[in-house]
């Protein structure tokens, strides 16, 4: 699916406020409501817009601690990777898991109640995952910037068709 500037603007507006009515969105992107809704539905059907969610205050929710965890595997066989990724997928406190290049194989972002809960998570859930060679944790003591709105692609940047 080829996206034009209006599609990109629709995506940015919805990333900023997913609760916009179709009329408000149409006004912001300078379209009438019907073509705007058709474009949103096309973006959803193509998988560019995968869903809508609420942004929740992590501290107020009771998970004030953010930990970045670097994992190195003992082996890089298909089975070891599959096992690790299957285990990580079901641990709720792990919010993000990235496959990395460099000295670590994976980078996890964990949100948790406190240091004691993190210790229990590592001892009972993460250490239980077969094939881990090392675990290194870094604790965030503040957040300077958090956004879920993607930057505008540079003009002429090829986009992968969906």
Our Rg estimate from Cα atoms comes to 20 Å
User: What's the number of helices?
Assistant: 6
Q: Helix/strand-derived class?
A: alpha+beta
Could you estimate the helical fraction of the residues in percent? 25-40%
The total of beta strands comes to: 4
**Oligomeric nature of the chains:** single chain
- The H-and-E topology, N to C, reads as HHHHEHEEHE
Strand order of the largest sheet: 2-3-1-4
Mean pLDDT over the full residue set: 94
Outline the biggest β-sheet.
4 strands, antiparallel
Overall geometry comes to elongated
Roughly what fraction of the amino acids lie in strands? 15-25%
Uncertain regions: pLDDT < 50 for 5+ in a row?
none
N- and C-termini, Cα separation: 6 Å
In short:
Helices cover 38% and strands 19% of the residues.
Q: Which features characterize this protein?
A:
162 residues; alpha+beta; four-stranded antiparallel β-sheet; 6 helices; 4 strands; 19% strand; elongated; WH-like_DNA-bd_sf; transcription regulation; DNA-binding
Would you kindly provide a written description of the structure presented here, covering whatever features stand out?
- There is one protein chain.
- The protein is built from six helices and four strands.
- It starts with a helix and ends in a 22-residue tail after the last strand.
- With 162 residues, the protein is an alpha+beta fold.
- 38% of the residues lie in helices and 19% in strands.
- It has a four-stranded antiparallel beta sheet with strand order 2-3-1-4.
- Helix 2 (22-29) crosses helix 3.
- The protein has helices at 5-16, 22-29, 33-45, 58-61, 78-89, 115-126; strands at 65-73, 94-99, 106-112, 132-140.
- Residues 3-64 form the HTH asnC-type domain.
- It comes from Streptomyces yangpuensis.
- Pfam families: AsnC_trans_reg (PF01037), HTH_24 (PF13412).
